[in-house]
Amino acid sequence: MPKPLKIILIAAAIIAVVFGIWYFTSNSDSDQSSLTLYGNIDIRQVELSFHDPEHIAEMKVKEGDLVAKDQLLAIQDLERYQYKMEIAEAKLEAQRQLVERLITGTRPEDIRKAEDEMKAVEAEVIFDKKEYDRLKKLVKKKLTSVESLDRARARLASDRRKLQALKESYQLAVIGPRKEDIAQAKALLKANESELMLAKKIWHDAHLYSPSKGIIQDRILEPGDMADNRTPVFTLALIDPVWARVYVPEQRLGQIKYGMPAIIKTDSYPDKTYQGWVGFISPTAEFTPKTVETPELRTSLVYQVRVFACNANNELRLGMPVSVEIDILSTIKNTRLCPQ
């Protein structure tokens, strides 16, 4: 081999060794103080719908609107719900009056009236008895007909039965309503109270409120559409929590603990960093998602990790690519880093 060619090959070998040392040194975590991962921003989404079927009367927000917790978003047609509530209120009031009447008992005026009716029939019975006895003597003397005696006997028996009924009515008026009747009336009153509460709940459910602070992502229905619990009206993207979904290879999993602080960076805001912390480590492995790695690495098993982020200005959006640096030497555990 010619000497110049030999010198060139030796020089090339030396350059290759130096380059390899530099490459592996620059691509390894020599200080092992942090772990850099890559992924995308993820958030929770809520599909908001009404409970009962009815036409939508009014929509208060549109796509892109920032809404607060408990903010009114939409209203159904309330006419039918209002009628149901008024019917329930009327039934409740009627039953309440019945219970009050039963508890109060028979009025003194009614008791006196029953007593007067009883005494009036007592007087009629006394008269009927005297008339019957008189006619009985006359029949023996054949001074009157037997038919007159029979009519007097029938009238006396009828008035006695009437007197017995009035005596029982008078006694019941003095005693008052039965405790069983009062208990039944109270049970119906409780049922009517629940019916009114249900009518009010249905009326309230015809108003759609935001369960949390967020952004209206989709406005699916419009005023006039029929809405029920099977058809979402809005899709709400929650602002908090926001996290970076990243994947850790099995050999690095042991370096990550809950609560470790992290720094999140994006291409959209290259000069800004966002504080974060490890809030979830998947208990099960999965193959590397196709959107994250090259085809050669898709057969590698990884673990999903969620790094929750501080997003005060709402700059981190769903699907945004991010890089995450986790401080694996930190002793902080399970601590929320965002200022309250």
Please describe what this structure looks like.
By secondary structure, the chain is α+β, with helices and mostly antiparallel strands. Among the domains are: 47-77 and 204-234, RNA polymerase II/Efflux pump adaptor protein, barrel-sandwich hybrid domain (OB fold (Dihydrolipoamide Acetyltransferase, E2P)); 84-200. It contains five helices and 13 strands. The protein has a six-stranded antiparallel β-barrel with strand order 1-8-12-10-9-13. The longest helix is centred in the middle third of the chain and has 33 residues, at 108-140. It is rod-shaped, with a radius of gyration of 45 Å.
Number of helices, counting only DSSP H or I runs of 4 residues or more: 5
> What's the pLDDT, averaged over the residues?
84
How far apart the termini lie comes to: 74 Å
Q: Please count the beta strands (DSSP E, at least 2 residues each).
A: 13
| Secondary-structure-derived class | alpha+beta
Largest sheet: number of strands, sense, barrel closure: 6 strands, antiparallel, barrel
Helix content: 40-55%
Unreliable residue runs: 17-31
Q: How do the SSEs run, as a string of H and E?
A: HEEEEHHHHEEEEEEEEE
Strand composition percent: 25-35%
**What overall geometry do the principal axes of the alpha carbons give?**
rod-shaped
Which value, in Å, is the CA radius of gyration?
A: 45 Å
Spatial strand sequence of the major β-sheet? 1-8-12-10-9-13
